[in-house]
Specification:
alpha/beta, 8-stranded parallel barrel, globular
Length: 318
């Protein structure tokens, strides 16, 4: 970021005696990505090769830089040829492709996730569900996928150990889903030590919460600037510069409020999937334009960057 970006509404509010208080430098994150950048762009919920093509075309048309494209239905919902097509298309543009692993609560036998309490949430139930996630991870990485999305602490630790022992490639990155994202600095630090390379946090965390997390962990953070309705539907466009200042290194994600759910994806959802993929890129353009107007668009990681840097881990040798 630039040293003194213009804040939303300034200087008009200052003229009216309603200027905001000065930033406290102690609130700023001391961390960056290993390339020195503060933020990257992720387009989520890109369900299949046709949707990837739409995102790539729209990103070119609107000049939206994209560092990562992620999918939410799961590796198991894609044929080998589709995974290869997605991996090749993103690799050609230097974009990281992230696919979700395995069975998880809402698509498994347990009914507790459909109760008012939410039960065990999206976690992998039993050995067989963990095995399904590992099967997905091995298959996806063999087909050229470099990033895996997980929604279970045990699966995360298992895949981190698999990575450490060469079962999957050592440069595979592991991303924690927004569906189980940590909400306090202690849990964030635990996820980092379990092997997380980037962590989705709920979009309703306050700016102070982000500062608290950054005091204990440098692991990259993922955050929906606009969250889907099933994650709250929050829209935080005017806070982007401050989200980056507090939360760097940060992936800016562009979901869509007031849009139908897409998971698990099938051809019956083709039209809405392509339309929403296109609109997510447009939302990214709107956000980048806003940052530029405020002089806060500096600090983006170079395109092609994907690795998280050195992070703290639990010992995998035992």
């Amino acid at each position: 970021m630039t040293s003194s970006p213009r804040r939303p509404g300034e200087p008009a509010l200052s003229e009216l005696g309603l200027g905001a208080p000065a930033h406290d430098p102690a609130d700023s994150s001391p961390h960056t990505f290993p390339d020195g950048g503060s933020w990257r762009v992720e387009i989520p919920s890109v369900e299949g090769p046709e949707a990837v093509g739409v995102v790539l075309d729209e990103a070119s048309r609107l000049d939206v830089p994209v560092h990562r494209i992620s999918q939410g239905s799961g590796v198991w919902m894609l044929r080998d040829a589709e995974i290869v097509e997605m991996a090749e298309a993103t690799a050609a543009r230097g974009i990281e492709l992230c696919l979700f692993t395995g069975p998880r609560g809402t698509w498994d036998t347990g009914a507790s996730v459909r109760t008012g309490s939410g039960g065990a949430g999206l976690r992998a139930r039993g050995h067989d569900a963990v095995a399904g996630c590992v099967e997905d991870a091995v298959r996806a990485t063999e087909l050229g996928v470099g990033c895996l999305l997980v929604a279970d602490e045990g699966v995360l630790w298992t895949l981190h150990r698999a990575r450490a022992r060469g079962v999957i490639p050592a440069d595979t990155t592991l991303k924690v889903s927004a569906l189980v994202g940590p909400v306090n600095p202690a849990s964030y630090a635990v996820y980092e030590r379990l092997g997380a390379d980037s962590l989705n946090v709920p979009s309703d965390l306050t700016l102070a919460h982000l500062t608290e997390i950054r005091r204990v962990s440098a692991a990259p953070m993922d955050m929906y600037v606009e969250a889907p309705d099933d994650l709250g539907g929050y829209v935080r466009m005017y806070e982007i510069a401050e989200l980056v200042r507090r939360g760097a290194p940060l992936y800016l994600k562009f979901g869509l409020a007031k849009a139908p759910g897409l998971y698990p994806y099938g051809a019956q959802l083709r039209g809405v999937t392509l339309d929403t993929a296109r609109e997510r890129v447009r939302r990214g353009r709107l956000a980048l334009d806003l940052l530029a107007r405020h002089g806060a668009d500096g600090g983006m990681s170079p395109l092609g960057s994907r690795l998280p840097g050195d992070l703290r881990r639990f010992d995998t040798s035992q």
